Amino acid sequence: MIHLPLAHLLSEPVGVSHYVMVGAVLFTCGVLCMATKRNALGVLMGIELVLNGANLNFIAFGSHVLRNDANSLGLDGQLISMFVIVLAAAEAAVALAIALNYYNNHDSIDVDRADELLG
Amino acid sequence: MNLHTLVDSLLSDTLETSLPLFRPELALCGTIVLMLLVRVFRCDRLLPPFLLAFAGSVVALWLALPAEGLASWAAISPQEIFTGMLVHDTLSAYVRIFLLAFAVLFVVLTQLTGIADRENGQDFYTLVLGATLGMCIMASANHLLTIFLGIEMASVPSYVLAGIVKGRRRSSEAALKYAIYGAGTAGVMLYGISLLAGVVGSAHLPTIAHELAALDISSMLAPGGDSSTVMVLALGGLMLGVGLAFKLSAVPFHFWCPDVFEGAPAEVNAFLSVASKAAALTLLVRIGFGLGFVHETPHATLATNQPPAAIAQVSTTAQPPTTFAALKAEGIVNESTADQPLSPVRNFFVVLVALMAIVSCTFGNLAAYGQTNIKRMFAYSTIAHAGFMMMAVAAAVALLGRDPSQSQAAIAALLIYITIYLFMNLGAFAVVAFLRNEMQSEEIEDYAGLIRSCPMTAVMMTAILVSLIGLPPLAGFWPKLRVLQSLYEAGGPLMITVLVIAGLNTAISLVYYLRVVKVICIDPEPDTRGPISLGFLPAAYILVVSLPVIIFGILPDKVAQWAEQATMHLF
User: What ipTM was reported for this prediction?
Assistant: First the structure.
């Protein structure tokens, strides 16, 4: 019988590791999205995915239902995710305003065409 | 502990201990709110935004200065405020004074160059003061949440500042690049923080250090040990490093820096290269010392009232305060032996920071050669200097386990470096900004023969450039010497390699700084350029900002004394 990595997750009751897996998948999707999208709005969506993956981790690590030992993050985890939600909103607002300003000047929000400054 | 005593201890901790120590930041918050209200009630004719911003930053600076003179710093013991979210010690006090003094000088500069006019003055100063507030939080962060919050509070206004000049293609492109890189690295850093906090079970830096020491990483790394936890920790640490490296513009996360510096106005560049770098370096020190050293800090406050650090996790079994004391005592006993529980953490940090410092310093200096735009050249110069300053942090953390007093000397070197760097870079960007207003150009070749049209500015710019190289009669020499000295003290093959590369880099940097000096002082003046007159106030400003480069070069003792006082009681 072949032992797939992480296969044991399927037979276990739902715990922290399941949530962390979903968080990792979200993070990976987000990073892929940031790396491959040419549209600035698509990149921003990727960033939101990454932030939400991290948030899911915080909530899973902070939950007493999933992990009730001394190593739990406790309320800290939930507090951090609240702050991150607010920060993500602020960051999205600023980034969208900047993208709009860029569109007004360049008639496009294709990040590949942002090449006048040679980085 | 019932709810009533909990609320009582929280209230007394907040009102009696934390808020008085947080007054400078509160003054900044008040100024920001006032500035926005003034616009809402349309009294900006009576109260121009410049006056408000200037008054606000001066008040904040005045509140940050110790009442009984700098010598009273000896009495400040490290103290956690806001239930362990921030820490107030001499390092944060020093960096806060530094940041607020920079804010005062910067507000004056923007008024003189006219970048913040009546139209967008409120926006500009709100963003500047907001970013300064975030940097103050970065400098005193003691919790993974405040680290992230501080970085974001400093970054998000900076994205807008980079594109503050409307209708310019390059400016908007710079802002877009900065915002996308910044938001992306912040996301990766947050994921790293979540991994670290989740594995260790706390987000409070001293508690993390305590837990890491209890984890016994050395035995996990030994053959046959279970290294999966260490791998997750290392991954979390690396991801946290991504966010920090972005703020420090360290290679390989430096791509934004030259583009943003070229596209953004020169005044904003001064802000990004001085204040932002200083705050990021202090944060790097905080993380290095927070994770690599079991602090005395927690039980200093825990002993007096109920454990504020544990209030957030009071529903679980809070860490009993005595374990910190016990571990500290144990830590001191172990301090001389080689196999300390936290030495793998320190080694990881030191190798990472040292490698990034070497690459940043070398890359920055090499890439600065071919630049024709002065702002772009200064961007690479900033990358190189940030690399040099990171070397001091690496040396400090490497020395932490062996020789705390030498480690403090390395931090003092870093503080002297950022202080002198303030005058050098603020002066340089002020010159660039004033000359841009006069001749609408930021190309190096257009500065030809400047010594004949405005001699004072040219002389000051030359002094700043020579000081940036680090030649002896000028101020830039002393911090470099001290950093090299700390690297030598740290010893070991890695640190000696860093030392040699740092020395070589100083020689490399000679060429591109002196090229600008040659253009300014020797090249003939072009016929097409009209007369340049900066006016009295701009010339006076340049003189005031860059004179310390000469004064501190001849009399470096004063800055050294401040920095040593600021680091004497770190632990």
Answer: 0.94
